Amino acid sequence: MYSEKVMDHFTAPRNVGEIDNADGIGEVGNAKCGDIMKIYLKIEDDVIEDVKFKTFGCGAAIATSSIATEMIKGKTIDEALQLTNKAVVEALDGLPPQKIHCSVLAEEAVKAAIEDYKKKNNK
User: Fold this and answer.
1) What is the DSSP secondary structure assignment for residue 56, as one 8-state letter?
2) How many distinct structural domains can be found in the chain?
3) In a domain, 123, yes or no
4) Active-site pick, 7, 16, 33, 47
5) Is 58 noted as a catalytic residue in this protein?
6) Which Pfam families does this entry report, sorted A to Z (predicted)?
């Protein structure tokens, strides 16, 4: 049902945790399935220096959070804003149709964290 990459990111997620004094924090949730994702960004000169996440949800939600953080770390804000749920799904070698919403949450959480950063910094 799940690809090896999904299982890898679920059983050994990358970038788990919180960043104290994060420059941007994005939290999104899906009431229907109960998944909640929170992304923390540390940004310097418009580059994402560090990113962490905390996700409450199913294996696919954890895997999409994990890979999304890997995909944006070291990128500029503008590059990170280009992240799509489709790119997250492709990076995980696919998700079952009923789990695609998890990749949408990952995209939304990243964008919410960047929006939070922009608001805090009048950008």
Assistant:
1) E
2) 1
3) no
4) 33
5) no
6) NifU_N
